[in-house]
Amino acid sequence: MDHRRSHNPNSGQQNRHSAHKRRRDDTGRRPNHHQSQSGSTPWQNPLCSRGLSTRRELYERDFPVYKQPVEVGCFSLDSERRFFNDSRQLRYYAEPDRNPHFDLKDGYKDRYVKRDENLKEKLDHILRWILSHCPYVDFVTWRGHLTKLLTTPYEAREGWLLAVTRFRGTLYISEVETEASRRERENRTERHAEMMYWGYKFEQYTCADNVHSLPDPGGVVNTNEGFCTVVQTRLSDHRLLFSGEVDCRDKDPKAPAPPACYVELKTSLEITTPKQFKLIKWWAQSFLPGVPRVVAGFRDHDGVVVAVETFPVSKMSQLIKNCWKPTVCMNFCCDFLSFVKQTATEDDPGVVYLFSFEPHRDVTYSIHRDSQYSFLPHWYVDEITRSQLSPHMPSCYHAFSSLAV
Ligand code: 0WD
Ligand code: CA
């Protein structure tokens, strides 16, 4: 697996550009001036023009230390989006023919239950998991949010907004939908909506509910259902805990332990290799939790899968040579997390530091107190606060207290 470590863990420090201290980059591109305030306490001069550069050249240095991700738990979401602290929704990969002719359109009209996209769950499922496991880490987030960070230096189309709250020393990162993305979602064409279904339908053709059963293409596709792995790892000096949805696992009982037995499923129109940016996304999404292979279903314009191919994640960066570099992705993410640590200093569940990126711009931020951006739910804040105060609940007390060295 390609979880490379720097030969000398300190070697990156010497040639490390402090990308976020640069006020203006060499091409003269202006950082966004996007430091606004909301809430009751006005901030005086909040580091006015400081941003984090997204220029690729700044991140071309040694690969940072990225520890082998360890699965520390998992959870499942059922057909009604109810949380279960177990793997009941984990499915098993059933290898299809190389040229299967799966019809991905089948069932769109009559056997499709779609998750309510207007319901923003934020970090709620992960927080629920944390309450029963009490890890101590620097950052808590979804894997998908980290994927967006990894691909940022190569992103030319879509911006992002990430809300960050520091609470009891841990930094929580939760995405906020951008205006552009909300507009796109609300104005989706019928064709686009159907094509989103195709990815889930491919999963149904290739996943079985049990080790000994077969996929059931006649069943209902319900996108409320999901199995999520929770992994812990370290990127340079940032201890991370994140969760990501896993499509299925190798059904061989002798397969390696999670996450090495997990399989990511994708569909793509381009035959043999997907387009460059799609490939970066595939790589980033699976590299982060240590998922070693992606199975791609190549489809035609009519939603029929004409070929299936397996891509080892460790070989993906060589598929389209010299176009993108994993080290740029990882160093950018690492510097972003340092930028967040330095910026989000006030430890308060009601305070949100909102980090903002638009293509070809620096990352900037604004600060919001008790605003619509606050995302840590009361049940979580109350429970953590209570468990740290009560001598009768020692587990979270120890986990969230002085271990933050
Ligand atoms: O409410 C929201 N806006 C978000 C919800 C934002 C980010 C995540 N989530 C939740 C969803 O509840 C989902 O259960 O995260 C879970 C997935 O998290 P992730 O693994 O961190 O996300 P990502 O890597 O972006 O997506 C993995 C898979 C996707 O597979 P593909 O092959 O398309 O990358 O999770 C699914 C999707 O199958 N997925 C979702 N399913 C339901 N609702 C969502 C979503 N909003 N986002 C991704
Ligand atoms: Ca998938």
Structure, explained:
Residues 67-381 form the RAI1-like domain. Its EC number is 3.6.1.-. This protein is an alpha/beta fold and 405 residues long. It has one domain (1-21, 42-94, 108-189, 206-256, 324-405). The chain is 25% helix and 24% strand. The strands form four sheets. Strands 1-19-18-8-9-7-13-12-2-3 form a ten-stranded mixed sheet, with helices on both faces. The chain has a five-stranded mixed sheet with strand order 5-17-16-15-14. α3 packs across α6 (276-287), α3 crosses α8 and α9 (378-389) crosses α10. The protein is globular. Mean pLDDT is 87; it is low at 1-18, 21-49 and 397-405. Residues 115, 120-121, 142-144, 147, 175, 199, 223, 226, 244-245, 266, 285 line the site of ligand 0WD.
Short key terms for the protein model shown above:
five-stranded mixed beta sheet, globular, binds ligand 0WD, alpha/beta, disordered N terminus, disordered C terminus, binds calcium ion, 405 residues
